[in-house]
Design goal:
By secondary structure, this protein is α+β, with helices and mostly antiparallel strands. The protein folds into 2 domains: 243 residues, Glutamine Phosphoribosylpyrophosphate, subunit 1, domain 1, CATH 3.60.20.10; 170 residues, 3-Layer(aba) Sandwich (Rossmann fold). The protein contains 19 helices and 23 strands. The strands form 6 sheets. Strands 3-2-4-1-10-9-11 form a 7-stranded antiparallel beta sheet. A 6-stranded antiparallel beta sheet has the order 5-6-7-8-12-13, with helices on one face. A hairpin with a 4-residue loop joins strand 7 and strand 8. Helix 5 crosses helix 6. The chain starts with 12 loop residues before the first helix and ends in a 10-residue tail after the last helix. The structure holds iron/sulfur cluster.
């Protein structure tokens, strides 16, 4: 067990040095799909741009699979979308249908073999699958597949979904019946794009924990409208596709040359969209519930100001994700908003890691202060979340070093007290600072003059939707899909002990 005070050389390095690991929860994956037979659309290139827009959802590996008259072409590798693909590679991915994936590993190691899409053979031809989410019954599913003498290539739950579909198809079912039977065995979070020789599937689990949207792409030459699937609407915007609607929880959309068919495969549907997608993960320009998440996050800041006003000279946000809430806080409180921290936008994922000595010397590759904006001022710094607290502490120290006379921190979500089992890496419970420390103790630990979090009610009511339609388990421990004991033990280190909230 790692003590909370310890310095983690990989995860702690984000603020100071790189984007390799961070003190924020890590998104699991982004998925994308295009179906465009008999058209001039280059499906691999469209998927490349879609993945480019979904890069924030996974930065470890990227992959595209295309299907062309039954033949399958696939390229995937470790790295960012722009590192994995170039013109030449995309030219070697012909086809009428394509799916793509950006990955951050939440099950299975960060290895090339675990990169997606997965391609499997079946009696109906080859299929490819891309998955965002986490199954909570992967061990049970693995046992089931072992009994069936299935060969695994990877260590991921995503491959198990694909293998289960193929197993059902090989027993004589068609693609739809095979997929529906497979989903009866899958528990947890899954948003999927699946390419088959007959069509493209988009699927969302019965709780709709991870997002998935449908778009329509019109060809300039007046050709047929074509459907696009994407984790977020920003993946549609980048290729000029028009947003149609969300894939609903428990819905399978089957896109073929006859158009789009909707099939409800789940017996019990319960809307439970991850509220952290709204607060932090999804891009601010993505649309959820008919508005951009930027607008929601500005309202979170307004609510935060109503709940925890403090007088100050300047409100600043932690770039980029804390900025909309900082603007909202400023608008509601009437306090001035300004920039105080500058993010180096060209810090990509680097494999050259700084030495411990360099970190201690205070090298700041990712964030730097605007000293003249902060000097002699009482500062309110707004961020979207605190997970382990290591980054917050360093940001506060940097602001003080720049000459701020007071530093007050405001967080536009409640304390994160529980880990996620549905496809977000929020660390084990013992590594979440709010799981073991009170707000007052965290305030002392990160060295601020005052600290306040947004209330749980404030966060949910600000969605302006039915508050029961969200998963907020990492703030409450109230998991919408029950967690089997074996995986609970692996992450809920404090289960049974007193948890401070
Ligand atoms: S536990 Fe938290 S991060 Fe995970 S799905 Fe629920 S709200 Fe999202």
């Amino acid at each position: 067990m790692m003590p909370l005070q310890s310095f983690d050389p990989v995860k702690d390095s984000d603020y100071l040095m790189t984007t390799q690991g961070s003190d924020k929860p890590e998104e699991a994956c982004g998925v994308f799909g295009v179906y465009a037979p008999e058209s001039s659309l280059e499906v691999a290139k469209l998927t490349y741009f879609g993945l480019y827009a979904l890069q924030h959802r996974g930065q470890e590996s990227a992959g595209i699979t295309t299907l062309s008259k039954g033949d399958v072409y696939c390229h995937k590798d470790m790295g960012l979308v722009s590192q994995v693909f170039n013109e030449k590679i995309l030219e070697q991915l012909p086809g009428e249908v394509a799916i793509g994936h950006t990955r951050y590993s939440t099950t299975g190691s960060s290895l090339k073999e675990n990169a997606q899409p997965f391609v499997l053979d079946s009696r109906l031809g080859k299929m490819a699958l891309a998955h965002n989410g986490n199954l909570v019954n992967a061990a049970e599913l693995r046992q089931y597949l072992i009994q069936k003498k299935t060969n695994f290539v990877t260590s991921t739950d995503s491959e198990m979904i694909a293998l289960t579909i193929v197993d059902e198809v090989n027993q004589g079912k068609d693609w739809i019946q095979g997929a529906m039977s497979a989903f009866e065995r899958c528990k947890g979070a899954y948003s999927l794009t699946i390419a088959t020789p007959e069509g493209l599937m988009g699927v969302r689990d019965q709780n709709g924990i991870r997002p998935l949207v449908i778009g329509v792409l019109s060809e300039d030459n007046g050709g047929k409208d074509r459907y696009v699937l994407s984790s977020e609407t920003c993946g549609l915007d980048i290729i000029g596709a028009e947003y149609l609607r969300e894939v609903e929880p428990g819905e399978l959309v089957w896109i073929t040359d006859s158009g789009l068919t909707s099939i409800n495969f789940a017996k019990q549907v319960q809307k439970k969209l991850c509220v952290f997608e709204m607060v932090y993960f999804a891009r601010p320009d993505s649309v959820v519930h008919d508005e951009t998440l930027y607008s929601y996050r500005v309202r979170l800041g307004r609510q935060l100001a109503r709940e925890s006003f403090v007088d100050a000279d300047l409100v600043i946000g932690v770039p980029d994700s804390g900025v909309p809430a900082a603007i909202g806080f400023s608008r509601e409180s009437g306090l001035s908003y300004g920039e105080g921290l500058i993010k180096n936008r060209y810090v990509g994922r680097t494999f050259i890691q700084p030495t411990q000595n360099m970190r201690e010397a205070g090298i700041r590759m990712k964030l730097n202060t605007l000293k003249d904006a902060l000097q002699g001022k009482r500062i309110i710094i707004v961020d979207d979340s605190i997970v382990r607290g290591t980054t917050s502490k360093k940001i506060v120290q940097t602001i003080r070093d720049a000459g701020a006379t007071e530093v007050h921190m405001r967080i536009s979500s409640p304390p994160v007290t529980h880990p996620c089992f549905y496809g977000i890496d929020t660390d084990n419970q013992d590594q979440l600072i709010a799981a073991t420390k009170s707000v007052e103790e965290i305030k002392e630990r990160i060295g601020v003059d005052s600290l306040a979090y947004l209330s749980w009610q404030g966060m949910l009511e600000t969605t302006q939707e039915n508050t029961n339609h969200f998963c907020s388990a990492c703030f409450t421990g109230d998991y919408p899909v029950s967690i089997p004991d074996d995986i609970k033990r692996s992450k809920l280190m404090l289960e049974g002990k007193k948890v401070k909230v």
